[in-house]
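Standup notes, protein team

Yesterday: finished cleaning the Pseudomonas cuatrocienegasensis set.
Today: Large-conductance mechanosensitive channel structure.
Blockers: none.

Input for Large-conductance mechanosensitive channel:
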Amino acid sequence: MSIISEFKAFAVKGNVVDMAVGIIIGAAFGKIVSSFVGDVVMPPLGLLIGGVDFSDLAIVLKAAVGDAPAVTLAYGKFIQTIIDFTIVAFAIFMGVKAINRLKREEAVAPSAPPVPSAQETLLSEIRDLLKAQQQNKP
């Protein structure tokens, strides 16, 4: 088997295609959640905590000299990233929780009772006849 045919067999397997679709959808979903966090959640949260923007917080390790930029420890961006991650993780948790609830409701939906087989029906009739004979005995 040549390398090209092996690669083709690998690439068209269901798992690889499913994984690729999941990654693409995950990236798109990540953009939606990032927009939700940055554009919907963070503005009211920033207003609530007094307009603090953590991304501006930094410690200057070495001041700017001439054309060389200042060397800073931007711990505020790190704090902001942690807050963003926490909100994104919570949003994903709530989404997965909702999806799981829908799956449980689907699973709980009652199904039609199974139709008894011909053998079971025949055995039930025999049982009923035997019960009737025992009740008719004096």
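Follow-up from PR in the comments: Strands lie at 59-62, 71-73.
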